[in-house]
Specification:
Helices cover 28% and strands 27% of the residues. The chain has helices at residues 4-20, 33-38, 65-70, 88-117; strands spanning 24-26, 50-52, 127-128, 134-139, 142-144, 147-151, 154-160, 169-170, 173-174, 181-187, 191-197, 200-210.
Length: 211
């Protein structure tokens, strides 16, 4: 139990403490905080810890974190909302367009390959040779001319000018598979003779033999 002199010294100490607390901010939650600020002579509790006003809240004093969060003074960034870049219907549409485009491109490549390899030789312009041997060049993926007309007894010579291996196979005649050289056959009987390269099914030709 404090004596009268001791109580006087305590009260004087509180007054000095209040004077020194000018420019400081009282932190910490405790009963009678505002009453202690108003009067230090009513048996207030022990003085709380003090800190400068320019000291950031919630960093050095973890117990103040609840106040810092409540006042919006928190260093934790707010979550960023997720934004969808493409919805399901748009994704499906893109996939459908991609499939259709791939189909169209495949059909175009196939058509170009058929044209490059030659079509029906009967649709091509017929070349007629009436005197002497007839010559046909064996190119890569085509015969030139592919539609030939010769009189009976005419010899047709095929000459390889391409880089790939080809052959000439028809009814009654057949050449070796080769990439260079020549092959000849004499057509004695009138008729229409179709031939092709067995290595490339689109390489076709016709020799029409007239009487």
């Amino acid at each position: 139990m404090l004596l009268a002199d001791d109580q006087t010294r305590v009260r004087a100490g509180f007054r000095v403490l209040l004077e020194r607390s000018e420019g400081l901010d009282v932190i910490g939650d405790y009963p009678g905080r505002s009453r202690w600020r108003a009067s230090a002579t009513r048996g207030a509790p022990a003085p709380p810890r003090l800190r400068p006003l320019d000291e950031p809240r919630g960093r050095m004093y973890p117990h103040r974190r609840s106040e810092s969060v409540a006042s919006g003074m928190t260093t934790r960034p707010a979550p960023i909302p997720t934004v969808a870049c493409m919805n399901t219907s748009l994704t499906t549409t893109v996939k459908t367009i991609s499939r259709r485009l791939a189909t169209v491109l495949a059909a175009a490549v196939l058509a170009l390959s058929v044209v490059a390899c030659g079509g029906d030789p009967a649709d091509e312009e017929q070349v007629s040779v009436t005197d002497g041997p007839a010559n046909v060049t064996v190119e890569d993926n085509s015969f030139a001319p592919a539609n030939l007309s010769v009189p009976a007894g005419t010899t047709v010579n095929w000459e390889w000018v391409g880089d790939s291996d080809h052959n000439v196979v028809g009814e009654g005649f057949e050449s070796e598979t080769q990439s260079s050289g020549a092959f000849g056959h004499t057509f004695e009987d009138p008729g229409t003779y179709e031939y092709s390269c067995t290595l490339h099914g689109s390489m076709n030709g016709i020799v029409e033999v007239t009487s």
